[in-house]
Design brief:
The chain is of the alpha/beta class and 365 residues long. Helices cover 26% and strands 29% of the residues. Strands 2-1-6-5-7-8-9-10-11-15-14-13-12 form a 13-stranded mixed sheet. Strands 18-19-20 form a 3-stranded mixed sheet, sandwiched between helices. Strands 3-4 form a two-stranded antiparallel sheet.
Length: 365
C-alpha cells in the first residue's frame, strides 16, 4: 500500500534548462518531455510526473551490475534527505550550476533531479552518452558521471568544478589521469537501496597520499561489519533497517573505511582466495587498456584466474600483456592470470556500468 505524501514545492531558486519552475510548471514540462522523440527526456518526464504524485514511495530499478536487475520501493522522504546530505557534504548551496548527463531511468539520474529541486540548483540536461562533455562549452559547479564517462571526458574536465563518480570503482589508472587536474574528483560509494551514495573519497587530493584514500561516511550514517567482513550500513534517514552488503571493507574509524572488493567476485583458485579488485589495482600499473580479472571453472583448481582486456586482437599485445603480468613483482604467483582474453568491446548495463558476467559469457562458451 502506497500511503499519501505531500510533495514539497520546488526550491524557489530551482531552474531546469535556464527556466524557473514550480511544481505546476514542472508537470507541464514533464508532459512536454514525454511527447518529444528523445528517450532520455521521456525518462526524465516520467520520473518528474511520478515524483509529483502524492504518494510516499517510488519504484526504482536496480542497475543489474552485481546481480539480476529488480525493482525496489524507495521513500520520497529518503530521497529528499539524501539530497540534503549531498548538498552539505560537498558544499553545494542554492544556485549551484549542475550538469545532468546520466539517464533518469536509474537512481543516480533521478537523484540529480531531486537534488536540483530540493537544493535550488540550476540544472541543465545533455543526452546521456559515453562522451557527455563533447558538446558542452560552459563551466558547471557540479556533475555526476560513471567511470567510463570520466575516462572519455578527461580533455574537457576543466568545465566541471566538482565531479562525483559512481556506478563502479575508479581504476588506479584513471586516478592517475585526474591527479593533476583542477577539478575536484570524488569517488562515491552507494547503491540503489541507499538512495545513491552514503560515502565518498577525494581521489585527486592536493597532497599526494601513499596509503589508500578511505571513504568518508556521510552524516547520520553508521557502519559496521558482519562475520564475512562485509559492510553493514545503518542510515535511518535514507533507508529502512540495516543494509547488509557484499562489499568487503576494512573499517579505519567509525566514519572511514577502505573498500577491498565484492565478496561475490572472490575467486577460489586451488584453495586460495583471490580478490579481483585488489589484483586489478596491481595490474593497473602496467595495463593502459580497460580490463578486469575474473574466475573461470577449472578441473584442477576449481577456478582459474583470467584477464579480460578491451582491445582488438593482436598477437604482439597478447605476448606483451603476458610478459608484463608475469614480471609484475607486486603480484604473487596465484595472482598472475592463467589466460588473457582480448575483447573488442566490453558489455555494459543500460546506464554504462561494466557488465562482467555478460562480457565473459559472450567470449567464453
Amino acid at each position: 500500500m502506497n500511503i499519501k505524501f505531500d510533495v514539497p514545492e520546488t526550491h524557489p531558486d530551482f531552474k531546469l534548462n535556464k527556466s524557473h519552475l514550480n511544481n505546476a510548471d514542472l508537470s507541464r514540462v514533464a508532459y512536454n518531455f514525454i511527447k518529444q522523440e528523445e528517450p532520455y527526456k521521456a525518462d526524465i518526464g516520467d520520473f518528474i510526473l511520478n515524483w509529483l504524485k502524492p504518494l510516499a514511495y517510488l519504484e526504482v530499478q536496480t542497475s543489474g551490475s552485481t546481480g539480476k536487475p529488480r525493482k525496489i520501493k524507495i521513500k520520497k522522504e529518503h530521497m529528499i534527505n539524501s539530497a540534503l546530505a549531498t548538498g552539505k557534504f560537498f558544499k553545494l548551496p542554492e544556485n549551484t550550476t549542475a550538469l545532468m548527463c546520466l539517464p533518469a531511468s536509474y537512481i543516480a539520474g533521478k537523484m540529480m533531479v531531486v537534488r536540483a529541486m530540493v537544493l535550488g540548483w540550476e540544472l541543465e540536461l545533455v543526452p546521456p552518452s559515453s562522451t557527455p562533455l563533447d558538446q558542452v562549452f560552459k563551466t558547471y559547479d557540479f556533475c555526476a558521471m560513471t567511470p567510463f564517462q570520466l575516462d572519455n571526458s578527461l580533455g574537457r574536465l576543466h568545465l566541471i568544478k566538482k565531479l562525483i563518480v559512481g556506478g563502479g570503482s575508479v581504476s588506479p589508472r584513471l586516478q592517475r589521469m585526474v591527479r593533476e587536474l583542477n577539478t575536484k574528483v570524488y569517488e562515491t560509494f552507494g547503491m540503489t537501496e541507499t538512495v545513491s551514495h552514503i560515502a565518498a573519497r577525494r581521489i585527486n587530493p592536493k597532497k599526494k597520499k601513499k596509503k589508500p584514500i578511505p571513504f568518508k561516511v556521510f552524516p547520520n550514517v553508521n557502519i559496521s561489519q558482519d562475520q564475512r567482513g562485509c559492510l553493514v550500513i545503518k542510515a535511518p534517514q535514507i533507508a529502512n533497517g540495516d543494509i547488509v552488503t557484499n562489499d568487503v571493507v576494512e573499517i579505519i574509524t567509525y566514519k572511514k573505511f577502505i573498500w577491498k572488493g565484492r565478496i561475490d567476485n572472490v575467486i577460489n583458485s586451488g584453495g586460495v582466495k583471490l580478490f579481483p579488485e585488489e589484483i586489478e589495482r596491481k595490474l593497473n600499473k602496467v595495463i593502459d587498456y580497460r580490463f578486469f580479472v575474473t574466475g573461470l571453472k577449472d578441473d584442477a583448481l576449481g577456478e582459474k584466474l583470467v584477464l579480460f582486456v578491451e582491445a582488438g586482437f593482436s598477437e604482439e599485445l597478447l605476448v606483451e600483456l603476458q610478459e608484463k603480468a608475469q614480471s609484475l613483482k607486486s603480484l604473487d604467483k596465484y595472482e598472475v592470470p592463467r589466460k588473457i582474453y582480448l575483447v573488442q568491446k566490453f558489455e555494459e548495463t543500460p546506464n554504462g556500468k561494466l557488465h562482467r558476467e555478460n562480457t565473459v559469457r559472450g567470449r567464453v562458451k
